[in-house]
């Protein structure tokens, strides 16, 4: 009996293994960020958030996640750099052109019946898809009666979106996407080239409202005819994903349209029965009740 008790004591003194300790460090870091700064990453998918945290630990030349926690809690500029790392923007103009072509064909006819159109781009990143929507609506004669609300939790990305300035090297790919998405003009009419950058025409921004919004913590702020949220929820766990779907369902008007990313779905959420598919392939759904 004594030998068994001694072995048990030795086991308990060994403490958690490396993976358990790492998870504890991450939990403490995310809890500290939430309590001090109000940003909630606690329900993001662990594997994704872990990779991004370690990337930032190395970028800051720190030895551990605990060291990052100490620096983040005492240095706001370090926190702001971390926020940018945790919400790395991945987007492009007319990304997945087939989606935008289907939107022209199946959603635009519905929007023509509305006297006023509100569209929410949730998690708009650096704004490429927002300007894509502005161009599409302008070409379909709907932009003057539309308001696009472009939100993101990453202020640095939002600032770039507001400026509408992008690398000229990306225009070849963006032009290809635009034409495949049913574009009706020369894509170059929408921007002015200057040195190694382009700036999109100011008239595309006049009906766009950029604002900070955190899907994990903030509430609904309007009623919308269309909500775009593409490839954002792939980083969330089931609990947060369900919470966000509830937010979208609450925010959509009757017969409003929800557009998701290629790897996302409303299935296996508590809100799947709120929608009917407009296009299953392109993940476009219409609120049914």
UniProtKB/TrEMBL annotation:
<keyword id="KW-0489">Methyltransferase</keyword>
<dbReference type="InterPro" id="IPR050903">
    <property type="entry name" value="Bact_Chemotaxis_MeTrfase"/>
</dbReference>
<keyword id="KW-0808">Transferase</keyword>
<protein>
    <submittedName>
        <fullName>CheR-type MCP methyltransferase</fullName>
    </submittedName>
</protein>
<dbReference type="InterPro" id="IPR000780">
    <property type="entry name" value="CheR_MeTrfase"/>
</dbReference>
<dbReference type="Pfam" id="PF01739">
    <property type="entry name" value="CheR"/>
</dbReference>
<dbReference type="GO" id="GO:0008757">
    <property type="term" value="F:S-adenosylmethionine-dependent methyltransferase activity"/>
</dbReference>
<dbReference type="InterPro" id="IPR022642">
    <property type="entry name" value="CheR_C"/>
</dbReference>
<feature type="domain" description="CheR-type methyltransferase">
    <location>
        <begin position="14"/>
        <end position="266"/>
    </location>
</feature>
<dbReference type="Pfam" id="PF03705">
    <property type="entry name" value="CheR_N"/>
</dbReference>
<dbReference type="InterPro" id="IPR022641">
    <property type="entry name" value="CheR_N"/>
</dbReference>
<dbReference type="GO" id="GO:0032259">
    <property type="term" value="P:methylation"/>
</dbReference>
<dbReference type="InterPro" id="IPR029063">
    <property type="entry name" value="SAM-dependent_MTases_sf"/>
</dbReference>
């Amino acid at each position: 009996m004594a030998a068994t008790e001694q072995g048990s004591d030795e086991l308990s003194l060994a403490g958690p293994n490396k993976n358990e300790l790492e998870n504890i460090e991450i939990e403490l870091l995310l809890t500290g960020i939430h309590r001090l700064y109000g940003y909630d990453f606690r329900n993001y998918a662990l594997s994704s958030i872990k990779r991004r945290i370690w990337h930032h630990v190395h970028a800051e030349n720190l030895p551990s996640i605990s060291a990052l926690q100490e620096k983040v809690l005492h240095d706001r500029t370090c926190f702001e750099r971390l926020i940018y790392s945790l919400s790395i923007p991945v987007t492009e103009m007319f990304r997945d052109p087939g989606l935008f072509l289907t939107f022209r064909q199946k959603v635009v006819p519905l929007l023509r019946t509305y006297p006023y159109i509100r569209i929410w781009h949730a998690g708009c990143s650096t704004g490429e898809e927002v300007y894509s929507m502005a161009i599409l609506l302008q070409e379909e004669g709907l932009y003057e009666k539309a308001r696009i609300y472009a939100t993101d939790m990453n202020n640095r990305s939002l600032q770039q979106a507001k400026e509408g300035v992008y690398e000229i090297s990306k225009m070849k790919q963006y032009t290809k996407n635009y034409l495949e998405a049913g574009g009706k003009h020369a894509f170059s009419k929408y921007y002015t080239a200057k040195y190694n950058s382009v700036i999109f025409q100011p008239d595309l921004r006049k009906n766009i409202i950029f604002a900070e919004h955190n899907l994990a913590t903030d509430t609904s702020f309007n009623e919308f005819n269309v909500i775009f949220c593409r490839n954002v929820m792939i980083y969330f766990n089931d609990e947060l994903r369900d919470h966000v779907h509830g937010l979208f369902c609450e925010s959509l008007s009757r017969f409003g349209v929800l557009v998701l990313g290629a790897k996302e779905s409303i299935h296996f959420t508590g809100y799947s029965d709120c929608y009917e598919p407009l296009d299953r392939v392109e993940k476009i759904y219409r609120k049914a009740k």
